[in-house]
Amino acid sequence: MKAFTYERPTDANAALRAVAKPGARFLGGGTNLLDLMKVGVETPSHLVDVSRLPFAQIEETNDGGLRIGATVTNSDLAADGRVRQRYPMLSRAVLNGASGQLRNQATTAGNLLQRTRCYYFYDTSKPCNKRSPGSGCSALHGYNRIHAVLGASDACIAVHPSDMAVAMAALDAEVEVQSADAGSRKIRMGDLYRLPDKAPQKDTTLENGDLITAVSLPPPSSGGQVYRKVRDRASYDFALVSVAALVDLDGDRVRGARIAVGGVAPKPWRALDAEQQLMGKPANADSFIAAGTAAMAGARGYGHNDFKIALASRTVARALADAVQHRKG
Ligand code: SF4
Questions:
Q1: Is the dihedral of CA 191, 113, 267, 310 positive or negative?
Q2: Confidence class of residue 328 from pLDDT cuts 50, 70 and 90?
Q3: Which of 1, 69, 94, 142 sees the fewest Cβ atoms within 10 Å?
Q4: Looking at ligand 1, which atom is closest to the CA of residue 196?
């Protein structure tokens, strides 16, 4: 591992000053960054540990939502009674990620900013445009079973690995960001991640030196909500496909729906057309199967991952049906 220096500021302004140094990076729980440093994918010369910043609270907001501090651990987030009651898809999504030990260490902001688990990204002997821009994409014509079927480009077909981000996308969460130059601002979850296009090395729309301070959730919507994850190992694995779904009914018809799909794209994939298509439809299997098909419109497989298209369609349909059941209690 390349040698680095380390500091642990206790307020945001000190952290922002520290990260302005050349080669500096923020360090949260370290559950992804340290692994990347060990294999030489990330080589920061200075680490700014943000784990002691005063962002470890979950607070009520004036509009009836919740504000989740950036350093709230995944375990504390999943266990919070307000999250479990009002945003059950978020609690379930977090509990579906990693192991108990990792969730005790991983933070809210770090979870959002974790990097892809594409095998070639971690193998420094292989070309990878995300790790080494211009070198090529080994997955495009290689083993691509875990890769994207939506939103990819010929430069990169990696998926974003976070479960939590999928639920937050469905919940219309906003990320609060602080920077030394521009003060504070909010970014909608749908705008946090960028598609690879020709520059896959940049995962998000954040600028250098941006510090995530919190994630705010709007007031909870009525309706049932679920998080359903399909993975190779039930005990501990990243999603092949996951779905965060919310369904609200007016009688037996759909009054509102939210669908976000994980494991299929470089970002949590909000299926807005499928949501629209469901409005006013009977809440039955035919409507949900049609919505599952609509959610994957335009999907393209790369060989080993072709199965994901049908799997994701069926998982969307199943999650919608489950959400209706949850609504009925
Ligand atoms: Fe690298 Fe992306 Fe290709 Fe994986 S899919 S090898 S991360 S460029």
A1: negative
A2: low
A3: 1
A4: 2
